[in-house]
Amino acid sequence: METFNIPATPSLMKEFLRQMGGTAVIDGGLATELELQGADLNDPLWSAKCLLTSPHLIRSVHLDYLEAGADIIITASYQATIQGFEAKGFSREQSENLLKKSVDIALEARRMYYERCSESSSGGTGDGRILKNRPILVAASVGSYGAYLADGSEYSGCYGEAMTVNALKEFHRRRVQVLAEAGPDIIAFETVPNKIEAQAFAELLEEEHIKIPAWLTFNSKDGVNVVSGDSLLQCASIAESCKQVVAVGINCTPPRFIHDLILAIKKVTTKPIVIYPNSGERYDADRKEWVENTGVSDEDFVSYVNKWCEIGASLVGGCCRTTPNTIKAIYRALSDRSPAAPGQKSKTAT
Asked: Fewer Cβ close by (within 10 Å): the C or N end of the chain?
């Protein structure tokens, strides 16, 4: 089995993208797939509940995305926090072990996928699965403070005046340390809704001397600002100024807004741009569910992908309500572009 040498340093993302030929595919929605496999996520822990009840389902979904062509899988820790687990009666040690478990499951899925690749010589099995030995990154998800609140406030960014940068750092500090120590390739700070949380994440990375690189992705509901109304340019500039942040972008935002958001981010960053929108469906925070038939089809979603890459996106995937079918379509769309830039050896094994 081939292995790939991608250093866990600030150069990680550029080296990874070089090996991938310039673009890479991120996985899609986790919770929707877990529910399709029988998980009950009606809980403040949301998809992180499966770390307790059914870790095999998480591993199965990771594998589904790898076999759909994802080059990056994101752990089931978006809504996993030490405070959230402790509220459920778990000890500090148990809570930290559950965070670590989210990374272990993704690493195990990657190992299993590589084993399947080594057993297949054709790059697939004839059933639509993509079995292709290539660099694969495991991204440890860190959801916003609003995700922990489980009240939809990651879609408003309104934390109240009492919430400060320092308070957010203390909320996230141990969680980030544990996830970094668990051995992922990158930390994904996701659905960042406001400037103070972006600042908190950037300061934490530097204060704690986190050795693992990170990306910061924001969400928007108007295609101009982040959801709190804070300036996207200011938020992206915070990410740009932090050396441990190796990519910046947008997640969990309707596809129709992405084009203008990429152009805005490009004004303030030289780092790779990462884009993984939701399906475009509207989230009802009061009922805690997505409103069906308010999104776009996989075909419409994927029709945007090449344009996003043409104007600057390097990493593209899906967020809430996207599926392995969405990701497979993105993989195919990107595969149709060009396998590698001139003079580069893509997917080089070491």
From this structure: C
